[in-house]
Amino acid sequence: MSTLNYKHLRYFWMVAKTGSIARAAEQLHLTPHSISGQLSEFADSLGVELFRRVGRKLELTDTGRRIVSYAEEIFNTGDELLELVRDHAFATTTYRVGCADSVSKLIAFDLVEPALKLKEPVKLICREGRLDSLIADLAVHRLDLVIADRPIPGHFSVRAYNHLLGESPMTAFCTEALAASFDQPFPACLHNAPLLLPGEDFAIHQRLLRWLERCDVHPRVVGEFDDSAMIQAFGRSGAGVFFAPSVIAAQVASQYGLVALGQVESVVEQVYAITTERRMSHPATVAISRLARDKLFARGDGRSDGAGVGGS
């Protein structure tokens, strides 16, 4: 009688979640060849076909889909066990935060800094990257929290919860020299002006484009960037106008020596904390949520009065 190899089951589960052996190998820090071999062993031990290849893609068989549902329950139960263990070991555990590239580094710093000021100190580890990669790390408990500009994408079959930390309208910035070249008020001054846009991975990308269309303003897009720090660096160099959340307008202006052209109330950026906890309980996570509610996104810093925690 064969026994279930849980390591093989996790590899299979990760391939099913990510949709490819290559992406699963990247998340598990293994080679694709190793993952492929482990999948073959797993399928042979069960005596069933788990995937079928359709072109370059892998598709789950009916049996594979049923096994995924069981794997989901098994690893969710394991996640609950790990949460229980962490509840009794917060003081000695490392606190690991993932920050999506699309979130302003100034906002991320303001949010995460309270984690270093707890009564019971923790070791803080920060990771930066694309949201899908960070969510995959969260799913296997390589991260305790992900800070993002959107809720967890619907295509992820991960038991995680979205906690809205707050929201802010956007402000347009540029150098004094570029601002002096405009002869129209904001936002008309953006017509034919050089513009630095956030990339398509930013939740704010389409909102800004729709706002420009409504204003009948057509700037020259001179660059799109998948990292908020790069946008600000190019903006500081005078390459073009860019947008940043109004809650950090004063910091952006002073730190980079820029001027604010105007605020866009109708274009709002949201910031989420994504965790495997339905209710925030880790002291560091609670401190981050409190900072967002009471200070960073409090009414007066931006448009929001600080949204409460909500799971989905």
Automatic annotation (TrEMBL):
Task: Could you list this entry's UniProt keywords, alphabetically sorted.
Answer: Activator, DNA-binding, Transcription, Transcription regulation
- GO MF: DNA binding; DNA-binding transcription factor activity
* GO aspect biological process, one term: regulation of DNA-templated transcription initiation
Name of the protein: HTH lysR-type domain-containing protein
Instruction: Quote any Pfam family the record assigns.
Output: HTH_1
NCBIfam families cross-referenced by the UniProt entry? PRK11062.1
Specify the HTH lysR-type domain's residue ranges.
4-61
Q: Which family does it belong to?
A: Belongs to the LysR transcriptional regulatory family.
Species name for this entry? Massilia timonae CCUG 45783
Gene3D superfamilies named in the record: 3.40.190.290, Winged helix-like DNA-binding domain superfamily/Winged helix DNA-binding domain (1.10.10.10)
- Which InterPro entries does its entry note? LysR_HTH_N, LysR_subst-bd, WH-like_DNA-bd_sf, WH_DNA-bd_sf
